[in-house]
Write a structure and sequence with these properties.
The protein has nine helices and ten strands. Strands 6-7-8-3-9-10 form a six-stranded mixed sheet, with helices on both faces. Helix 6 runs parallel beside helix 7. It binds adenosine-5'-triphosphate. Adenosine-5'-triphosphate binds next to strand 2 and helix 1. One of its GO terms (biological process) is L-amino acid transport. GO terms for molecular function: ATP binding; ATP hydrolysis activity; branched-chain amino acid transmembrane transporter activity. InterPro entries: AAA+_ATPase, ABC_transporter-like_ATP-bd, ABC_transporter-like_CS, BCAA_Transport_ATP-bd_LivF, P-loop_NTPase.
Length: 232
């Protein structure tokens, strides 16, 4: 049984038909990349899984249980974490406070904090600063560790490398690779080399439909299979 499975999912924003029958599976322990051009529905797929934008047709299954139409907080409580695209952090809280509020009740805050700082030593250095005053790269690190310390079974990660300098991208990639040893990851990423490097399998989305999928070790990033769907 897959950890996550989408079955012929259709999702709309108002009258706009965004996902047109998306089916995909993520098995426990995998990193699965979802790639495709801007606007093809990658973020909407993550929002559909979280039931922030529930599908009008089709089903979302988590550990074999139908979660279609569930409340988003129920999906989160069931162990699905989200690292959204726009680095959602609390800008007026310090780095440390941002980490604290991401740790689920009953979990050891000190251990979580240590883990976060080991992953990104930069954050330890800036732990008493308001998160809003950090650089873009540091804010992304904070967004990622907030996902990390959330103790999730499945982490949905949206465009973690977007707008970051190459050196930071490589630190972010290392952190995600470390995360992936403990957590299943569904990764939306436009940086194809990065996506293929981190992931075991991929799906290509185009105009709201899955148009290709496979093992990442079967392909490289200038493969014709990607050029068709990813070039502008
Ligand atoms: N809240 C919304 N209301 C209406 N349309 C929306 C909304 N959010 C997204 N869309 C539209 O839905 C389509 C899919 O958007 P989505 O964000 O899922 O794409 P994406 O593949 O993640 O691309 P990007 O990398 O640009 O975020 C786009 O045409 C977008 O303009």
């Amino acid at each position: 049984m897959s950890l996550l499975s989408l079955e012929a999912v259709h999702t709309y924003y108002g009258d706009s038909h965004i996902l047109e029958g998306v089916s995909l599976e993520v098995d426990r322990g995998e990193v699965v990349a979802l790639v495709g051009r801007n606007g093809v529905g990658k973020t909407t797929t993550l929002r559909t899984i979280l039931q922030l934008t529930p599908p009008s047709e089709g089903q979302v299954w988590l550990r074999g249980e139908d979660i279609t139409g569930a409340d988003t907080h129920e999906v989160a409580d069931a162990g699905v974490g989200w690292i959204p695209e726009n680095r959602r952090i609390f800008s007026r809280l310090t780095v440390e406070e941002n980490i604290h509020v991401a740790v689920p009740e009953g979990r050891n805050i000190d251990a979580a904090r240590e883990r976060a700082y080991e992953t990104f030593p930069d954050l330890r250095e800036h732990r008493h600063r308001d998160a809003g005053t950090l650089s873009g790269g540091q804010q992304q690190m904070l967004a990622i560790v907030r996902g990390l310390v959330g103790d999730n079974d499945l982490l949905l990660v949206d465009e973690p490398s977007e707008g970051l300098a190459p050196l930071i991208v490589s630190a972010v990639a290392d952190a995600l690779a470390a995360t992936a040893t403990e957590t299943t990851v569904l990764l939306v990423e436009q940086n194809l080399p990065l996506a293929l490097d981190l992931a075991d399998r991929f799906y290509v989305l185009d105009d709201g439909q899955v148009v290709d999928s496979g093992d990442t070790n079967e392909v490289d990033d200038d493969d014709e299979r990607f050029r068709r769907y990813l070039s502008a």
